[in-house]
Amino acid sequence: MSSLAHKTERVLNLLRELPPAKVNEVLDFAEYLKAKTIKTKSHKQSTTELPLYHMGAIEPDVFEASSPSDVAQKHDQWFHSQVETALVVADNPVTEFIPHETVSSRWNEKKKTMQARAIKSKPS
């Protein structure tokens, strides 16, 4: 039995043992993975890399041959691909969202910690 056939059989056996609600969760997750794989493949085929100077690694004059509209178009393509990926994740029913209050509270705690560290390390 091949590795894939063996894994398929294992998955089927596990599915037979799960209650219907859990089978639905597995289906949702499998559909999410499939959508993510399709998006990743299409993204990899049409991906456009941003010039490194957008990340501060190279001086802009290295790319003088690129027009500003080319750079803007490349950035726009990259941005749209990021939004599409985020929408796939957000539309998945198993995605868990963190309430705003929780995120805000966590950031306030981090902010207090960083401020205390900054005051502690401040030269006299």
Total beta strand runs? 0
Mean of all residue-level pLDDT scores: 78
Q: Estimate percent helicity.
A: over 70%
Determine the number of helices (DSSP H or I, runs of at least 4 residues): 4
- Please tell me the total number of domains: 1
Shape: extended
Provide the gyration radius in Å.
23 Å
Approximate strand percentage: under 5%
| Main beta sheet strand tally, sense and closure | none
Distance between the termini: 71 Å
Q: Spans with pLDDT under 50 lasting ≥5 residues?
A: none
Structural class: mainly alpha
Helix-strand string = HHHH
Q: Topology of this structure?
A:
Elements: H1 3-17, H2 20-46, H3 68-91, H4 100-121
Helix pairs in contact: 2-3
Can you put this structure into words, describing what you see?
By secondary structure, the chain is mostly helical. The chain has one domain (3-121). The protein contains four helices and no strands. The chain has helices spanning 3-17, 20-46, 68-91, 100-121. Helix 2 runs antiparallel to helix 3 (68-91). The chain is extended, with a radius of gyration of 23 Å. The N and C termini lie far apart (71 Å).
